[in-house]
């Protein structure tokens, strides 16, 4: 691949992530409200603060490239968040709603992990060392968030089962 083509693709993929993160910033406060489990609520709050920093990291990268992050809508994230909303409108007990929130959130994290892994690798190939560090930092946060969600899902599912047995 020519270096110019890779650079263009890199910028396009960064814009996709920038749009995705901004959509997530809108969605997370609603997820905080809908979560019942205190740890899940706190986890979403923490990830909201992380996401604000992730947006700033992308802005630093665009600035260094002399490019704007605007002008692209991430349709993948739009679809994931839309699906999450659909499932949440149904009548659910607290544990089930928490489980549905986690399912939606993990889809979001996996989308981000795929996107950040890709741009981190492009940045490596392009010799954009400062960007590699910033993108890796975000990638690590998304991975840690995904793992926390898995642990919470396991705990919440056990709680729900215990309620049935009691
Ligand atoms: Fe993110
Ligand atoms: Fe995330």
Gist?
The protein is an all-alpha fold. 86% of the residues lie in helices and 0% in strands. It is elongated, with a radius of gyration of 18 Å.
State the major sheet. Answer: none
Number of strands: 0
If you consult CATH, what is the topology? Ferritin
Structural class: mainly alpha
CATH top-level class: Mainly Alpha
Order of helices and strands: HHHHH
Query: What is the global morphology?
Result: elongated
Q: Assign the CATH architecture.
A: Up-down Bundle
Give the CATH H-level superfamily. Ferritin, core subunit, four-helix bundle
Fraction in helix: over 70%
Number of helices: 5
Averaging pLDDT over every residue, what do you get? Answer: 94
Q: How does this structure look, described?
A:
By secondary structure, the protein is mostly helical. The protein has one domain: Ferritin, CATH 1.20.1260.10. The chain is 86% helix and 0% strand. It has five helices and no strands. It has helices at 3-34, 38-65, 75-88, 94-125, 129-165. The termini are far apart. The mean pLDDT is 94. The chain binds fe (iii) ion (2 copies). Residues 47, 51, 109, 112, 142, 145 line the site of one fe (iii) ion.
